[in-house]
Write a structure and sequence with these properties.
single chain; alpha/beta; Maf protein; 7 strands
């Protein structure tokens, strides 16, 4: 039986609580169906093509399970020069990453992809500058556990806010979903937004 809800089904192909919270705060109705894909970068793959490829793959995998839905996927990575910084495995790796980011400007790239009822994708780029951090600051922050499960070993919206001196570009991109660009994409795709025409 098809209800009206089936006509406006949005599926988030991500288990990220940050992405889920963003969509919820914006009044979107959606279900979550995470994609389990190999996220290993290809040899020599640069950050922008890498996140675009992963976002598209995640969206495609989940769209195969939900062909009538709009499937939204995203992937975020941090790049320091030509090197991709993924999620640290433990506090020691987090300390090493933070030490390398200290006092420098790095790049955050998020690939955003829609599949299923609408096929479109894009990459958003933000530059983030860290304060010069002391060893004590790095050790304390790594010990909070917050850097684990986060690309580049920090959460700008959490305790890690104190690390950041400047953000040039979309701040929500650094958290994992560039909201302005994502909403424009959903609108182009015909996904009903909270402030759209009331049907």
């Amino acid at each position: 039986m098809h209800t009206h809800a089936d006509q406006t089904l949005l599926v988030l192909a991500s288990s990220s609580p940050r992405r889920r919270d963003f969509l919820t705060q914006l009044g979107l109705t959606f279900t979550v169906s995470a994609a389990d894909i190999d996220e290993t970068p290809h040899a020599g793959e640069e950050a922008a093509p890498y996140v675009l490829r992963l976002a598209r793959e995640k969206a495609r995998v989940v769209a195969a399970r939900h062909p009538d839905a709009w499937v939204l996927a995203a992937d975020t990575t941090v790049a320091l020069g030509n090197e991709l910084l993924g999620k640290p495995q433990d506090a020691a790796e987090a300390r090493a990453m933070l030490g390398r980011l200290s006092g420098k400007t790095h790049d955050v790239f998020t690939g955003v992809a829609l599949a299923g009822r609408h096929d479109e994708s894009l990459v958003v780029h933000t530059r983030v500058t860290f304060r010069a951090l002391t060893d004590a600051e790095i050790a304390w922050y790594a010990g909070t556990g917050e850097p684990l499960d986060r690309a580049g070993a920090y959460a700008v919206q959490g305790k890690g806010a104190f690390l950041v001196a400047a953000v040039n570009g979309s701040p929500t991109n650094v958290i994992g979903l560039p909201l302005g660009e994502t909403l424009a994409l959903l609108e182009r795709a015909g996904v009903p937004l909270a402030w759209g025409a009331q049907r």
